[in-house]
Amino acid sequence: MLIREISLTYEDYLKAVKFALKLWFAGKAIGDWRAARRRDLGKYITDHASGKLAEIAFCRFLEANWNLKAEADFEVYPGARAIDKGDIACIEIDRAFKMPPPIDVKATKPGSEWAFVELREFKKRAYWIYVWILVDLPLAHLAKPVYEAVRNKNLAEIETSISQLADQLKEIEAVVSGFKYREELEAEGREFKRGDEVPDPEDPSRSLFTAGAGNIGVPIADLRNSESDWKELIEKLKAWSR
């Protein structure tokens, strides 16, 4: 039986938040991030930290089930160029670390019914597979002191402020929701424009929310997630990397 539930630690969280902060500072002029609203900053850090936690969870999933050691990419690249090599930097195949085919790991929230990829990103970057991981990150994980430290760009203060949250972040649960090959998402995915109503997959007459951006996606229940699906993917991954 596959181990799909992965426990992430406070150390994982701290590493993910630091990565998100590096992205924030690297991608904006000083005036932009000092003037940023707390909501904008909090959403940015939460989105990117959740995404990095999902990548860490996927690496642990590979190791727990197939003894495949993998490493997420924590590099911050200059400029706005697309990083086409994917979210997983390397995987150990035949006792050697090798770059895998491009894998895009997405974080989803508890209660999510759809597995989405931003449409513009989907058309711009050709990943081999898309993997969705549910990350149960507490909504109040970024306290006001953290926000103020970020505004001041005081990295030592940021780490001190985050450490105050260690008790509530001792363990973060992540669950592997499944994956789709790119060609499957192209064939089966439904496109939503900004402003479109996103329906409940179980009751299409009921709207779940209004799309805030263009997306392509499938219901999470339709993802590949059986043991045989994953075994097939792992064999393809090994063959590709040899």
Comma- or semicolon-separated keywords:
242 residues, alpha+beta, 4-stranded mixed sheet, globular
Short summary:
With 242 residues, this protein is of the alpha+beta class.
Structure description:
The protein is of the alpha+beta class. The chain has one domain (5-181, 221-241). Helices cover 40% and strands 27% of the residues. It contains eight helices and twelve strands. Strands 1-8-7-5 form a four-stranded mixed β-sheet. Strands 2-3-4 form a three-stranded antiparallel β-sheet. A hairpin with a 2-residue loop joins β10 and β11 (203-210). α1 (10-27) packs across α3 and α5 (144-151) packs antiparallel against α6 (155-163). Mean pLDDT is 85; it is low at 29-35.
The tally of domains stands at 1
| Rg over CA atoms | 18 Å
Q: Describe the global form.
A: globular
Strand content: 25-35%
The level of helicity is 40-55%
Q: What is the tally of helical segments?
A: 8
DSSP strand tally: 12
Strand order of the largest sheet: 1-8-7-5
**Alpha-beta content class:** alpha+beta
Q: From N to C, what is the helix and strand string?
A: EHHHEEEEEHEHHEHEEEEH
Distance between the termini: 27 Å
Spans with pLDDT under 50 lasting ≥5 residues? 29-35
- Mean of the pLDDT scores? 85
Largest sheet: 4 strands, mixed
List the topology elements.
Layout: E1 5-9, H1 10-27, H2 30-35, H3 38-66, E2 70-72, E3 88-93, E4 96-98, E5 103-108, E6 114-118, H4 119-124, E7 129-135, H5 144-151, H6 155-163, E8 171-181, H7 182-188, E9 190-192, E10 197-200, E11 203-210, E12 215-219, H8 227-241
Parallel strand pairs: 5-7
Antiparallel strand pairs: 1-8, 2-3, 3-4, 6-12, 7-8, 9-12, 10-11
Helix pairs in contact: 1-3, 5-6
